[in-house]
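Chain and conformation:
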Amino acid sequence: MNEMDESSHTHETKYRQYFNWNTIVQVGLVGFTTLGFLLTALKLPEYGLLVALISEVFWLYSSYRAWKEANQIGIFITTIVITLILIMGVVNYWFL
């Protein structure tokens, strides 16, 4: 019975190691950014901008952590500027 408990605990530890908030953020960052570029390249810029704007949530989180943990404020500032540009693009395509 003790071996089974250890095996279950090891499996749970590995699960937590690979499926945590950081993994979700990294997959979201790459996935939504890539999809945004792909949609823009497929001549669907209005959808590409929306998806890229969704990716900015992950970029803002990651760049904020990079700023706080490694003093990389340039990444955070650049992400804010790109987010504002994407917002202007979404407004231009969807509301004007």
